[in-house]
Amino acid sequence: MSGVILGIDPGLTRCGVAVIQQSAGRKVSMLFVDTFKTPPDMPLEDRIFRISEGIEAVIKRFKPSSLAIERVFAQANLRSVMGVAQISGVVLYLAKKYELPVSFHTPSEVKAAVTGSGRAEKAQIGQAVMKILDLKEIPKPADSADALAIAICNAWKNSSVLSGTGSATSAQQAWLEAERVARRKLKA
Q1: Which residues, 6+ apart, have CB-to-CB distance to 173 below 8 Å?
Q2: DSSP 8-state class, residue 106
């Protein structure tokens, strides 16, 4: 499977946006990465509009074949969750507008895909992304590295490597094993 994948780490103050190109198997390369920022004192509708315009411009420029977004998860900070949910809604609207298939990935799924551990720290994710994409430095801020990791997770999850028809990295092997264990637990 190959194609252009848009990865989004949703947030209202910082929204990580990345575009990768997936070639045959697990080969991925970075086409674009940025973190769109809005100041907390800006009116909410202006913040949402600014981020949506930025994401739409990326869609128009790179014409992705799919979109991957981090799944909203509950946190103690309701304000933060609301911002993530609001931007996620905008992203889903844009995906529908441009007819992009959407995949949701949990934070632990993304971490496992790129590092081999669903409990990896931010620094480990950045290091893994840098290595996978053969970059000279870790993408900053962390939201940019996270958006790349989300796109990579999506690429690898949908690749022939994870379907068992190709060779897998140690991170992918760990991910496959974790999925097998989870399936066994569901059947039990």
Answers
A1: 116
A2: -
Q: Domain ranges for the chain, please list them.
A: 3-187
| pLDDT score of 49 more than 60 | yes
What lies within 8 Å, CB to CB, of 97 at 6+ separation is none
C-alpha span between 128 and 82 (Å, rounded): 29
Q: Note if the bond before 141 is cis, omega within 30 degrees.
A: yes
Identify whether the C-beta of residue 7 lies closer than 8 Å to the C-beta of residue 149.
yes
Confidence band (pLDDT; 50, 70, 90) for 186? low
**Is residue 57 a contact partner of residue 32, using CB atoms and an 8 Å limit?**
no
pLDDT in tens, 80-121: 788 899 999 999 999 999 999 999 999 999 999 999 999 999
Name the one residue in this structure whose structure tokens are 């202006």: 46
Token code pair at residue 173: 């092997």
- The residues annotated as belonging to the active site are 9, 70, 143
Reported as a pLDDT band with limits 50, 70 and 90, residue 160 is very low
Task: For residue 69, list its beta bridge partners.
Answer: 8, 104
- DSSP letters of 36-79? EE--TTS-HHHHHHHHHHHHHHHHHHH--SEEEEEPP---S-HH
The CATH classification number of 3-187 equals 3.30.420.10
